[in-house]
Amino acid sequence: MVTKKAKSKSTKKQSWLKNTLLYKSFQSLGHRFIHLTFLDFLYYLTFALVGSFYFYRVLPKLSILQSAQPLLEQVDSWREEGVFQELTDIERSVAEFKIYTALVLGIIFLSYIIIKWVISTLMQDKKLQKVQFVKFTILNLIFASGFITLTAILYSLFQEAMFAILFVFIMVPLTIYLVNNLHPIFVNNKNIFQSYIKAFSTFKKIHYFIIPYIVIFIIFIAIYILLSFLNFIPDTLFLLIFLLIFACYITWAKVYLLSILKKIKSI
Hints:
Blueprint: H1 2-19, H2 21-27, H3 31-58, H4 60-67, H5 69-73, H6 75-80, H7 84-123, H8 130-157, H9 160-189, H10 192-201, H11 207-228, H12 235-263
Helix pairs in contact: 2-12, 3-7, 3-12, 7-9, 8-9, 9-10, 9-12, 11-12
């Protein structure tokens, strides 16, 4: 009798687990998951390569330019004294820094727009259309402009320590939350204005997302701890393994959060 009850409870637990969105998110990982993971991996690899180039080759020029700033402020008097070579070198460095910075930001933004649009579209089995890509670009430009503007306002209102706290613990989480909701909502209804309205309206049902985000965060910590045991392998190989695992993790998290949006009927 006890054995039957135990089996019955075990069966109910298994049945409950199989009906959870968390279980279904893992269950839905098929061949499409491989394609989506590859695209995410491609984006993060591009980000890592371009970011490394900027950090090691371009950013060091900034300290040189900062030290040369007093000279640039006296550029007219320097020209009158005939010191042209030094000015030419400094001005060339300033131009190169601006150009490389613009190129890096452009490449990262363009790769982000293209890859995230393809992933968000394929994830919902929608067709890739040029018109929707243009709208998706505008959608993200609006979001980026709002983020930069709000960040600038907060920076001007608060001291650096308080600004850092607000940015890390409020701005970043809210940005992640909104982007994760905004992209799939837009792909579903294809209207920029309505997508923003629906994305912000999900705050009314934010309690549905609390546990999923806790689970996502716990899995991230687990992955981080597991990867820490691989610190003995070469840096390049470690980076590739990290990016691949991180891409798998991010793709799964998107599938999981998409199921939450469907449950609350936001898409």
